[in-house]
Amino acid sequence: MTTPVYENFINGHFLKNQSGDTFAVKNPATDEVIYHVEVADEFIQNAAIESAKQGFAAWSAMTPIERSRILLKAVSILRERNDELAKVEVLDTGKPWQEAECVDVETGADVIEYFAGLAPAQVGQQQMVGNDFYYTRKEPLGICAGIGAWNYPLQIACWKSGPALAAGNAVIFKPSEETPLGAIKLAEIFIEAGVPAGVFNVVQGAGEVGQWLTANPDIEKVSFTGEVGTGKKVMASAAGSLKDLTMELGGKSPLLVFDDADVSQAVSAAMLGNFYTQGEVCTNCTRIYVHKNVYQQFIDELKTRTEQNIIAGDPMDPEVNLGALISKKHQELVLSYIDKGISEGATLLTGGKALSPASAPNGYFVEPTIFVDCKDDMTIVKEEIFGPVMSVLVFDDEDDVIRRANDTHLGLAAGVFTKDIQRAHRVIHQLQAGICWINSYGNSPAEMPVGGYKQSGIGRENGIETLDHYTQTKSIYVGMSNIESPF
Ligand code: NAD
């Protein structure tokens, strides 16, 4: 059976490359090639820049309310096609249908809707300075590049294009080479909604294509989602043309469970924050610090619920709640971390092996895995694993657990479970993380800014401030009297 070949999406249509280079995309749940994609060669790269320049000229000349109207049309189409798009995400990522069906498309559409609504409300300021005055304009940056990770491909494309387009920029988006189809679908939807050709372009390929985007002098900004190490390369490369940057990087986030917490609720949060999307979520609370007074109760319930309630298998089966990891290579990496956990002395509470469910025997599954008796200096406690692997640690002193939670160069997210309202805020204010939850974990509505402290990121996505990250301020001084000059 021949599989489809997708070309790059430039200037409102598919465009064939000249090199003929393609790459294959596999369904992680079956290990089968499902389609091929053409690599963005030099011809495509040049065409993408020309297209985005033209797109920017047309789009930035429209009023914010005109742009908003068109983007809201795209939002309606995204929602109408929810199931078709959710299926694309399941086949590309291996994540369960029961998640994609209600989260991936919806949270992407929400963010475009949010920024479409905000765009016409963005205003400059004016101030008198003596008899003169100045005023400011919020102007778009120009061509913005988006570079995406593979865990939420369509959502990431929406989260980057929403504010960028609302503010009047053109976008060249490069999805992860593991999950390239969602962004193409989004590009088609933008065209159908009336976004002018050239405003949203999709280039395909791996690191080299990303590297080209970060170095290209015609691109004013890069918004990147991916690993810390790749983020550093992106920043170094973007320095050559002093680009504006947004960085959404990795994490190793702590969840603190105090002895007055609702333990069952904390177990729910820990499971969501480690096993949702088979653990491939950047904000995951992979370090769970539990107060010694509730430690045994916590791990007993955690073990029972993990062993009884998780169903791995064909991700399209609506009953399945644990999907396949993105690739064989990633499965092997996650298993190697589990081996390290065992060899460094952590106790395996449950899981620890690859899985081969009857309905998806060739998929890259890993059992939901929980380590207890973990120590702060173990590799599994220090490094991001990006799979369904949870480390549980004990504490008995508030100040000490805050110090331990902060003892990392990462700072994406953090959570606290306690019924003591003062302790909840006191502790969360001391945690060095950009996205925090009290008696909750993982929710990320369009209205709430998200991004990391320390090496987990720069800048924010979502929330009002993000619109500022896609505009630049022009100050205009107006003289109301004759110039006084010594010349
Ligand atoms: P990755 O860093 O390997 O790749 C991310 C993207 O960068 C891909 O599109 C890739 O092709 C591209 N790329 C690779 N090398 C490049 C280079 N030199 N220059 C420019 N682009 C390059 O990350 P991944 O494996 O796709 O995703 C997993 C990581 O993403 C995890 O660390 C996770 O925590 C992080 N993540 C963060 C967030 C967030 O919002 N903070 C969200 C999702 C994922």
Automatic annotation (TrEMBL):
Gene3D superfamilies: Aldehyde Dehydrogenase, Chain A, domain 1 (3.40.605.10), Aldehyde Dehydrogenase, Chain A, domain 2 (3.40.309.10)
Alphabetical list of Pfam families matching this protein: Aldedh (PF00171)
Principal EC category: oxidoreductase
Keyword terms: Metal-binding, NAD, Oxidation, Oxidoreductase, Potassium
Presence of the UniProt keyword NAD in the record: yes
Transmembrane segments: none
EC number(s) on file: 1.2.1.8
Record has NAD as a keyword: yes
Residue numbers annotated as active site: 248
Residue ranges constituting the Aldehyde dehydrogenase domain according to the UniProt record: 16-476
Family of the protein in this entry: Belongs to the aldehyde dehydrogenase family.
Name of the protein in question: Betaine-aldehyde dehydrogenase
Taxonomic source organism: Pseudoalteromonas lipolytica
